[in-house]
Amino acid sequence: MRGRWSAFASCAASIALLFGCRLDATGAGPDLPLPIDASETTDTFVEPPVDTAIAIDDTTVDDVTTLDTTSPDASPTDWPAKGWSYRRRLEIDGAMLDGELTHFVVPVVFTDADMISKVAIDGRDLRFTRLDGSLLPFELVRWDPAGGNIVAWVQLPVIGPALPNAFHLYYGNAAATSAADAKKTWSSEVAVWHFDEAAINGDTTATFADATGGGHHGWQNGSESAPGVILGGQRFDGKDAVEVQRAHDIVLGDVDCTFAAWIRTTEAKQQGILIRAKGETHEVGDKLIGTGKEGPHFGVDHGWVGFLRTAVAINDGKWHHVAWVQQKDAKDKLETWRLYVDGVELAIRQYETKPDVTTHTVRIGARAASSYFDNPWTGDLDELRYAKVARSGPWIAALERSQRAPESFVKVGPEETAK
Fold it and tell me: How far apart are CA 398 and CA 381, in angstroms?
């Protein structure tokens, strides 16, 4: 494996230096129909109910635990985390949400230099809890003991426009051990790539972790570190790609699924974001996601089945959030495809998709020759994720809002001290 895993260990030091204390996360065929915008209809299209597009696997998130020193009967006005000296109330404004979402993972990002002397140097005493003190699953990506910067992902049981949407961050317990659990945090996703890892241009030694713990790590093939939407991202120069491991789990044909990513480019050419194909060969059964076909637009192509694109240009050099949602058998054997840009549904169509080809690989920022996305990606990518769930419109909107401006999405209250 070209020494990748040994190289991954040596890369850890570079990550720490670059980002602070970063913690581990334990085609197109001929004569295809033209796409339609979301405002257009066809005689055969039947709009499915919104709630049929939500199917969360919550088998590992209902088992809520509490802090070791918590009184489980404490009311929200008490201080249930008896061993912790400080806390802050975190809250999401219901106006930021278009509907109720269960087991939604929010980024918590803020900086407070006053916390430096109160939080353990490795952040092991950081805890996110419900108001009653019960522990929330969270991934701690960064605690910077020199600057007081926190970047974490927290799974909330339910949030909505008419709900309180409040939770706590506790800190200040020298005896605490780490409770961060990335696998539990991302239990409703199949793969999540933060792309925070340090990578040198042209190198092949970096490994991009799958935060879910599912082993869908990405192997570097030339990309390099660059500023991202949240912490770091990866920059591709039109020759690079990231090879995804355990490709058989990234199922894009004849299933409920959602793929989402942040993209930034100035290119109008046809280029790939996520390619599931026989290497760079374009053939029946491949599944391609990218930009540039029929203009600088976001689109998806299933080889000799169908193609759909939006009509919004995304090559302005700014970050855009893109998502493709597929709902299986929405009408008989037809799958519904929905395309979103910056949280807004812009195109919709139905096709009868084909099952995936088991020998196909999955590559990020790659190409399929002679396809609608026949060039590798030129630009930046960040925060990619895949779920075997057809996410709803409110979910995609919240995903974009929470990541574009996390400090505004999750409001951080003043420090409280244990009495």
Answer: 19
Are 84 and 415 contacting, i.e. CB atoms less than 8 angstroms apart? Answer: no
Q: Do both 172 and 212 map to the same domain? A: no
CA distance 338 to 258: 10
Whether residue 274 sits in one domain with residue 325? yes
Domain boundary among 187, 202, 226: 187
pLDDT digits (tens, 9 = 90+) for 33-43: 333 333 333 33
Q: CB–CB of 351/337 below 8 Å?
A: yes
Instruction: State the SS3 of 314-371.
Output: CCCCCCEEEEEEEEEEEECCEEEEEEEECCEEEEEEEECCCCCCCCCEEEECCCCCCC
CATH of the domain at 263: 2.60.120.200
Sheet holding 138-144, edge to edge: 21-22, 138-144, 149-159, 101-111
Query: Residue 280's domain spans which residues?
Result: 31-53+189-404
The tens digit of pLDDT for each residue in 244-286 reads 999 999 999 999 999 999 999 999 999 999 999 999 999 999 9
**Domain tally for the chain?**
2
* Residue 145 resides in a domain: yes
**CA–CA separation, 300 and 140 (whole Å):** 33
Residue closest to 57 by CA, chosen among 400, 390, 399, 402? 390
My answer on whether 267 and 122 are in the same domain is no
Q: Is 142 part of a structural domain of the chain?
A: yes
What are the Cα distances from residue 379, in Å, to 65, 66, 201, 260, 419? 42, 43, 13, 16, 51
